[in-house]
Amino acid sequence: MTSPVSDSKRDRVIIFDTTMRDGEQSPGASMSLEEKLELAKILEEMGVDVIEAGFPIASNGDFEAVREVSKIVTESTVAGLCRAHQVDIDRCHEAIKHAKRGRIHIVIATSPLHMKHKLQMEPEAVLEAITKSVGHARNLCGDVEWSAEDATRSERDFLRRAIETAIKAGATTINLPDTVGYTYPSEYADLFKYMVENVEGADKAIFSTHCHNDLGLAVANSLAGVQGGARQVECAVNGLGERAGNAALEEIVMALKVRGDQLPYETGIVTQHITRASRYVSAITGFPVQFNKAIVGKNAFSHESGIHQDGMLKNRETYEIMRPEDVGQGATNLVMGKHSGRHAFREKLKGLGYELGQNALNEAFGRFKDLADKKKHVFDDDIIALVDDALARGSEKIRVVRLRVVAGTEGQSAELTLDVDGEVKTAHATGDGPVDAVFNAIIEIVPHSAALRLFQVHAVTEGTDAQAQVSVRLEDDGRIATGQAADTDTLTASAKAYVNALNNLFSRKEKGRPETAIASGF
Ligand SMILES: CC(=O)SCCNC(=O)CCNC(=O)[C@H](O)C(C)(C)COP(=O)(O)OP(=O)(O)OC[C@H]1O[C@@H](n2cnc3c(N)ncnc32)[C@H](O)[C@@H]1OP(=O)(O)O
Ligand SMILES: CC(C)C(=O)C(=O)O
Ligand SMILES: [Mg+2]
């Protein structure tokens, strides 16, 4: 059997991107001409084989977009979609004739449901429309794709006849869309196998998948189609598309790359460009990418669990089947959270410039776990504040044990327990505001004559659960001592900062040091 489709083409899967056509059919996903031109450049640079830029008969804007994309793209083929109508095809040709490689893509439905109710055409009339439309397109352009809309709900024998009609009329690509996301992988694979083996002239065309995600099976079905003999996959960046979307380009490409042992076909995609394309599509459509989205989600290469982080530090392949760099996602991210373990914590501290001994590490780790229990996101700055805080408090004689504050319109009071050199003391005080009440309680337990010279609070990170970092400066008899503390509770941080300053002041007095501007351990 001689074939106009070369063997090398059959070893490769053509990536047909329909982000600008089917993707744009998503309600709310309209793109401007400028955005489509920029996206076309990104897709071309990424190595997409076919860019479907729009549906030229739909509007002047769509026509213009297909025409302008055709003018600037030189490497990829540019396709425009049309119904099986001469007017659609002529309009499409007007737009894609500027392309170095242009394609006319004709669609007509072949399922009994669509033919009877939507097209209101007899099956034989549909076959006639295929002959006419594909033949007309082929007279205008050497590259014609024909799609059997709702192929997966079409009668097999009629679909076979329709495909044969399209190939006979000159179609070079045959697309069998799962228009409503209805098929199953085994069923879709079988459909392609059957058509590739039984359609007369099947070797003259490339078979293509086009899967929708109504049951979440779009990617699995597309891969099954390839298993069955398809060598073109229609897909969209971030899985954009009608209703639940199309098969996601990034997932198709990486599934083929990572599991070449299962499907030994290459794509021409430079995978390092994937994340850039995803972010651009998300930005121009306003459709956010879910955090746990495969390949391009924020968490796709993030690890928070201690056991996973430990495994990753020993060998990244324990928990990563591909490298984030390979999809342009930057580096693996070991996220510090309540599920993290000591190995990752030590590594994180190293990265932040801290080398702690085992005891200090254990102490800081305990405090980190307490913080992670309270806070949704533990940022690097939180960890720095926490470790600095722990280091500063290492040799303190006075420590905060417990604090309870009542605040509000009825007045403010604080009940504070301190450990003063091993002796636990409690005081109850009121004040002009909750901080004042806390500081008065400290003065009651540890009487001193130092004057408060500075009280400053700032949030370590953003959010209402951010740690407050408090600085306190005390002056006594010409000596100045500063204390700092961080806590998610501003009043606890205030108490600890004051006590830290007091410890520093007493320590300076003991050592007989002269006055100093910054006397904290920082
Ligand atoms: C599965 C898919 O994604 S297919 C692509 C879907 N995308 C779009 O529809 C977006 C662009 N569409 C449009 O802008 C408009 O629908 C247009 C310009 C194509 C047509 O607009 P109108 O002429 O106003 O027709 P309308 O959209 O209301 O109805 C569609 C008509 O096309 C017919 N039709 C639908 N599909 C096809 C087809 N593949 N081939 C031929 N005729 C078709 C319908 O039977 C209906 O015909 P009727 O007017 O004789 O009843
Ligand atoms: C136009 C065709 C390919 C389509 O989008 C579908 O059937 O889903
Ligand atoms: Mg579609």
Automatic annotation (TrEMBL):
Cofactor: Mn(2+)
Classification via SUPFAM superfamilies: 2-isopropylmalate synthase LeuA, allosteric (dimerisation) domain, Aldolase
Top-rank taxon: Bacteria
Alphabetized SMART domains for the sequence: LeuA_dimer
Keywords: Acyltransferase, Amino-acid biosynthesis, Branched-chain amino acid biosynthesis, Cytoplasm, Leucine biosynthesis, Manganese, Metal-binding, Transferase
Pfam families membership: HCS_D2, HMGL-like, LeuA_dimer
Associated pathway: Amino-acid biosynthesis; L-leucine biosynthesis; L-leucine from 3-methyl-2-oxobutanoate: step 1/4
Subunit details: Homodimer.
Protein name per the record: 2-isopropylmalate synthase
Organism: Caulobacter ginsengisoli
Gene: leuA
